[in-house]
Amino acid sequence: MKFLKNISLLFLLFIGLNASAQVYRFETTGVSMSVKSAKGVWSAYTPFKDAKIVITLDTNKDRIVVYSEVIQLYTILGYDDPKTNEQGSIDSFQCVNNDGEKCVLVIRTDKDSKQKQLYIKEDSRVLVYNMKYVK
User: Fold this and answer.
1) What residue range is the signal peptide (predicted)?
2) Residue 109 domain boundaries
3) Number of domains forming the structure of the chain
4) What's this model's pTM, rounded to 2 decimal places?
């Protein structure tokens, strides 16, 4: 009887842990990019180009995945404290990309329009995705 009780507790604990998983799904509408020249000067952002792709933020697995033509996987090494100002909120993540290079990913949410943008800041380029949260 005690064995069944222990198995039941483990089962409930397992269900509770799965229920707390946080996976956020976004769909993008456009992408823009800025690149750093050989002299270290950043270009102006390109005009936004249509981009219909899915992005997931999985806090359980500490990763952000951009499901573009070439899948971009970012492992989250650290979560910065969220910031809020008159324009909206900013959530930053210290990450490493597929190639093992450190980068910073930032999700900005506009206070008024609720528009979300994902900034992927690497040494030589910055990608910006316009996106919306999908339940």
Assistant:
1) 1-21
2) 22-134
3) 1
4) 0.82
